[in-house]
Write a structure and sequence with these properties.
single chain, alpha+beta, Penicillin-binding protein 2a (Domain 2), 7-stranded mixed sheet, 23 helices
């Protein structure tokens, strides 16, 4: 039994020895492999890494095109060209080639050239014989005194090759006498860098300081970085070929093509479409998780921004093996770029162009909407600006000129700018009156002045309008009627009704920047003005003055709700998206809200608005048509920015089963009936000329 146990113990020990022996053998093999890779084959792999590298080249995806509602192209892509600093290695290879030129001039091996300074603070040196140290140190100091100071002093006068030539005699003597490996002064390095900086500056027609800054940023790029540093972009094919030829000796610079955004009609629908530009660092940080890259262009405004994810597509790439000169050897892997999706807008290009030209030289906005869908058919903010200019590289001066333009062309007067609405606000008060169970037939005698104690408010019509009811008050825009009724129903009712019509908050719209306007409240005034609410504030609010502000888009929605008996359809610019498989994804018509009140109230207000156009004393007679009954309201709003009033006109057509709702706002231009209503007339004439009775 003992013998058997002893034998088993011996076998166990042997197995343990064998196990540890195998482990040791594996470690030895790993060590030998590492030694082979890191020592024996070090030079081989180092050379391979230096000679060839893998470069990732981004293939920019073309953005989706933009069409109008009838399929007319508005925005497309064309071939653009840009000059880029490709990556750090290209620059390092260029520098190495230049140093080799210096080595050849000095009859020295390249590996023995050190870009170091002879400066007095640097006493380092290299030698093949230790016994020469003291002599070499002495000669280095002597050479430094003779040459380096002079080189630095005269550096601006010479190129690096000229400097090398001038100092060649000293350097060769030093090598011959002391068998030492010498330095190339840092001044020479600075000189040859200045040479190519000057050359590139001349070729690109930009200052040397900018070129140097670009090179310094480019040095930080990694060979593995997919992001090339853009030096110049947005130039034509002819210039691209010229630059390609002139810059051929600089392997770290490259001309690449990319899909450049082209706005075919320059300023048409500029405030709606928006433009694209290089992504900012802030935008990149917040969007990189969605696949955005540092060199992407991104929508900066309007629909280009709102639908950027649909428009941008998906970038492709090529993984290419490149040699030391950054020349591609073979493609390793690639992925095609996926274009962005095409957008079809609700806008009619012909009407948009016509109304933009008609409003040229004016400040204001015009909007027309399909009453039953919320589709915006035409939307013009004037003055306009050229989208191609903003999408291109602009100088600081050019940008400041646009920003500081007194007419403020960058302001979106359609849906961002907020203005006193004046009398186009009065229908809101009418609904407040009717909801307060006050009859529209109740009479009020207008003398031209409304008094409370020692305070009085004047009507626009001297002497007043005489005996008026709600219908007449709307037709003639009788201020004193609304002073009286507004004071009777009170501020809270006016505020409540305003909110029912969506005023005081941003309109739902497929652009990011939408103004909220302002419906003042007692709390707002206390916080903002540090004042109490006065009775006069309510009276002013009743005619759309005082602190009340609205955007033209809000007024459009107000009148569209009247047209549809309280239903508010979401306004939108996108009609459909073309998917990659060719199918069309239609925008869903969305009922945003319904103001639930007695339908008779809408009929009452509509009749008053009809009289504004067809009544004997109406202020919008210019809108009368034989084929359709137009209903509208004009307004002339006082403001603190202009001596003249803001001009407004808003309404819909026809009165039964409305098809088109419209709003016109003309900034500081005068009376609504004389200035804004004719703009509406121009649109209606063009619209019915093209579409007859129904838009497609």
């Amino acid at each position: 039994m003992k013998k058997k146990e002893m034998k088993m113990g011996k076998d166990t020990k042997n197995r343990v020895y064998i196990f540890f022996g195998v482990i040791v053998l594996i470690y030895l093999l790993l060590i030998l492999k590492m030694y082979h890779l890191q020592v024996v084959k070090y030079d081989y792999y180092k050379k391979l890494a230096e000679d060839n590298s893998i470069k990732r080249k981004k293939i920019e995806s073309p953005r989706g095109k933009i069409y109008d509602r009838n399929g007319k192209l508005i925005v497309t892509n064309i071939a653009g060209y840009k000059l880029v600093f490709t990556e750090k290695k290209g620059y390092q290879n260029y520098k190495k080639d230049r140093l080799k030129e210096i080595a050849d001039l000095l009859d020295e091996e390249y590996n023995n050239i050190y870009v170091k300074s002879f400066g007095r603070k640097s006493r380092k040196y290299f030698t093949k014989k230790d016994e020469n140290k003291r002599i070499i140190a002495y000669e280095l100091k002597k050479l430094n005194d003779k040459t380096d100071y002079k080189i630095i002093k005269d550096i601006k006068k010479y190129s690096f090759l000229e400097i090398v030539s001038r100092e060649e005699k000293h350097l060769k003597f030093f090598k011959k006498q002391y068998n030492a490996v010498y330095y190339i002064p840092s001044a020479m390095k600075e000189a040859y860098e200045r040479d190519y900086t000057k050359n590139i500056s001349k070729i690109l027609e930009i200052d040397e300081k900018s070129v140097k800054g670009i090179i310094n940023r480019g040095k930080k790029l990694s060979i593995y970085s997919p992001d090339d540093l853009v030096i110049l972009d947005d130039f034509e094919e002819k210039k691209a070929h010229i630059l390609m030829e002139k810059l051929s000796e600089y392997p770290f610079l490259d001309i690449v093509d990319y899909p450049k955004r082209k706005y075919l009609y320059n300023d048409i629908a500029c405030h709606i479409i928006g433009y694209v530009k290089a992504i900012s660092q802030t935008e990149y940080d917040s969007l990189k998780h969605l696949g955005y890259e540092k060199t992407d262009n991104i929508g900066k405004d309007g629909l280009e921004k709102y639908y950027d994810h649909e428009l941008k597509g998906e970038n492709g790439f090529n993984y290419v093996e490149v040699d030391v000169k950054n020349i591609g050897l073979k493609e390793i892997e690639s992925k095609k770029a996926i274009p962005g999706k095409d957008l079809y807008l609700t806008l009619d290009l012909d009407l948009q162009v016509h109304m933009t030209k008609f409003m040229n030289g004016k400040k204001g906005a015009f909007i027309a909407m399909d009453s039953k869908t919320g589709e915006i058919i035409t939307a013009v903010s004037s003055p306009t600006y050229n989208l191609n200019t903003l999408a291109s590289k602009m100088s600081v001066n050019d940008w400041e000129k646009i920003q500081n333009n007194v007419n403020m062309p960058l302001t979106n007067r359609i849906s961002v700018g907020s203005y006193a609405p004046g009398s186009v606000f009065k229908p809101v008060v009418c609904f407040g009156i009717l909801d307060s169970n006050i009859s529209p037939d109740e009479k009020y005698y207008s003398t031209g002045t409304y008094r409370i104690g020692n305070w009085e408010w004047k009507d626009w019509k001297k002497g007043g309008h005489g005996l008026v009811d709600m219908y007449t008050a709307i037709e003639e825009s009788c201020n004193t009627y609304f002073y009286n009724m507004g004071n009777r129903i009170g501020k809270d009712k006016i505020i409540e009704t305003s909110f029912q019509f969506g005023l005081g908050r941003p309109v739902e719209l497929d652009v990011y920047e939408v103004g909220a306007g302002r419906i003042p409240t007692e709390k707002w005034k206390q916080e903002r003005e540090k004042q109490s609410w006065y009775q006069g504030d309510t009276i002013n609010m009743a005619i759309g003055q005082g602190y009340v502000l609205t955007t033209p888009m809000q007024i459009l929605q107000l009148y569209n709700m009247i047209a549809n008996n309280g239903i508010r359809y979401s306004a939108h610019y996108l009609k459909k998206i073309k998917e990659h498989d060719g199918t069309m994804k239609e925008t869903i018509i969305k009922t945003e809200y319904k103001y639930d009140t007695n339908k008779k109230h809408f009929n009452i207000v509509k009749e008053g608005l009809r009289r504004v156009v067809y009544g004997a004393h109406g202020t919008a007679k210019v809108l009368r048509r034989d084929d359709h009954v137009v209903v509208a309201k004009t307004g002339s709003a006082q403001n603190s920015h202009y001596e003249d009033t803001h001009a407004w006109a808003a309404g819909f057509v026809p009165i039964d089963n409305p098809e088109i709702t419209f709003t016109c706002f003309m900034e500081g231009a005068g009376g609504g009936g004389g200035v804004a209503a004719p703009v509406v007339k121009e649109f209606l004439n063009e619209y019915y000329k093209k579409y007859g009775n129904k838009i497609e």
